[in-house]
Design goal:
This protein has 281 residues and is an alpha/beta fold. It is built from nine helices and twelve strands. Helix 4 crosses helix 5. It is an enzyme of class 2 (transferase).
Length: 281
């Protein structure tokens, strides 16, 4: 497969047409597509079909090259990667970009790591398209928590030890610890999955224990879930902060009794190389 570098369009408010006058008479569409956690074989068939008809792919930094290479060679790629304290584009700019390209008559795929609606800000992009009168479709994806749980062999729900699972974010809008219902999260026999929680692991663990969660509660850290360099660290809530030190992510923190079943170690089992009919080599 041929790899194409992502390009940067002009900033919002200065977007230009791509010179496809024959397409401008046709209404474009936006597809909010979940790319899954990284393993290209976890991409859905519907996501693949959307990618294969894309004129423009606006993608996150966490989307793997293997997935990006499933888009047509002619498709323009635009990286809107977000890292802590370093955003190439503000969310409002991304929203306006999607609308602008669709109004040019283009098929626009907004490719997001995991699932668009699980801490992916897909809801904001959907609202922007609706307000602009742009047709928008959502294609769900495998969120990182499901991949992390599966590869570690630790179910998020399990009879007798996890009757509920809750997904929370590890930081608030300005980067500080989130304002969560810590007493509810501290109840036993449930699983709490913390996205984007590496930098706030110490505070999160302290709040959960202060609210009553036992420090001996099993915990799991999964870095680069589903990818070839995946790493799993089995620990406890009391030792969570120490176990998170030195990791750069992306990583998930998982706390709950069912994590006692987790297997620490490296990447998930190898599979045969992905071959999909219709994808150009």
């Amino acid at each position: 497969m041929t790899t194409h570098r992502s390009s940067r369009p002009p900033r919002a408010g200065r977007l230009v047409v791509l010179g496809r006058g024959q397409r401008a008479r046709k209404a474009g569409r936006v597809w909010l597509v979940g790319a899954g956690p990284g393993d290209p074989e976890l991409l859905t068939l519907k996501a693949l079909k959307a990618l294969q008809m894309a004129d423009v792919v606006v993608h996150d930094g966490l989307v793997s090259d293997e997935v990006l290479d499933m888009a047509p060679a002619k498709a323009r790629r635009i990286s809107v990667a977000k890292r802590k304290s370093r955003h190439s584009y503000a969310q409002d700019e991304i929203n306006r970009m999607l609308v602008a390209f669709a109004r040019e008559g283009l098929e626009v795929v907004r490719l997001k790591g995991g699932d668009p609606f699980i801490f992916g800000r897909g809801g904001e992009e959907l609202e922007a398209c609706r307000e602009a009168g742009v047709e928008c479709h959502v294609v769900p994806g495998v969120t990182a928590a499901l991949a992390a749980s599966a590869s570690a062999g630790a179910p998020l729900t399990h009879r007798g030890s996890a009757q509920a699972v809750t997904f929370v974010t590890g930081h608030a809008a300005k980067g500080e610890e989130p304002d969560l219902d810590w007493e509810a999260l501290a109840k036993a026999n449930q699983t709490v999955v913390i996205y984007m929680g590496l930098s706030t692991a110490a505070g999160i663990a302290a709040r959960l224990m202060a609210a009553g969660r036992a420090g001996s509660t099993p915990a799991l850290i999964v870095e680069n879930a589903s990818r070839g360099d995946e790493r799993r660290i089995a620990t406890t809530l009391a030792e969570l902060a120490g176990a998170a030190e030195g990791l750069s992510g992306p990583a998930l923190l998982v706390v709950g009794e069912a994590m006692a079943l987790a297997k620490a170690g490296g990447a998930p089992a190898a599979v045969q190389p992905l071959k999909v009919q219709g994808v150009s080599e």
